[in-house]
Every structure is written in C-alpha cells, then in structure tokens.
From TrEMBL:
UniProt cross-references to PANTHER family, sorted A to Z: FAD-DEPENDENT OXIDOREDUCTASE, SULFURTRANSFERASE YTWF-RELATED
CDD domains (alphabetical): RHOD
InterPro entries: GlpE_sulfurtransferase, Rhodanese-like_dom, Rhodanese-like_dom_sf
Source species, domain of life: Bacteria
Residue ranges of domain Rhodanese in the record: 14-101
A Pfam family of this chain: Rhodanese
Name of the featured protein: Sulfurtransferase
Keyword field: Transferase
Organism: Amycolatopsis albispora
Recorded GO MF terms: transferase activity
SMART domains the record matches: RHOD (SM00450)
Length: 110
C-alpha cells in the first residue's frame, strides 16, 4: 500500500479509546510521548511485531506524520488494520493532548 493511500485521522477525530503505536526514535520518545502509547521505533518494528497491541484499528504516530504513514502502509500490507495519525506528535501537542516523560521533565516534541 502506498503511504498516500493509508487511512488517516486527525488528532481531533481520534475515538475515545484507541491503541496508539509511537514509531519515533528513543530520544524523541524520551522528550515526550502520549501516556498510553506503545513505543516501537520504526527501524525495530519488523522484529517486534509480536509486541503490537491486538486492537483494531491500530493508530500509528510519529513526529509529523510521515514515518507513521509509511509504517501504517507497511502494517496494512502485513494484514493489520492501521491508521496514520495526521500531523503526528506535533499536532498531538498543539491540540493539548496529554504528554509525559519518563524523567518527569516538561514534555516536548523534538
């Protein structure tokens, strides 16, 4: 599936309960992430498929929405129901969605 054809949802249109997969790198995750997200960096995903939530659909997020579109396309090609979160964590943060860090620092998107 072409990333341009991937199902996409705006942060403001996410359902009440959903499974979120964050595919950013470790340093991006450490700077700030959604509290309920599962973190598997994009480069590690093929070897860690067993760790994915079983939820359908699986919402995929990165910093701006580009990597997550590629991952969602790949996951859909693997038979998973995956949806890209448009605008990524930048949109998440801009819309006032909750963010946390492991160290208790002020969360940010890097």
């Amino acid at each position: 599936m072409n990333p341009a054809e991937v199902p996409t949802v705006d942060v403001t249109e996410l359902p009440g309960e959903f499974a979120l997969l964050d595919v950013r790198e470790n340093y991006e995750w450490a700077a700030g992430h959604a509290p309920e997200a599962v973190h598997i960096p994009m480069s590690q995903l093929p070897g860690r498929l067993a760790e994915l939530p079983e939820a359908t659909p699986l919402y995929v997020i990165c910093r701006s929405g580009v990597r997550s579109a590629n991952v969602a396309a790949w996951l859909n090609g693997q038979g998973r129901d995956a949806v890209n979160v448009a605008g990524g964590m930048e949109s998440w943060h801009a819309n006032g969605r909750p963010m946390v860090t492991e160290q208790g620092a002020e969360p940010q998107v890097v």
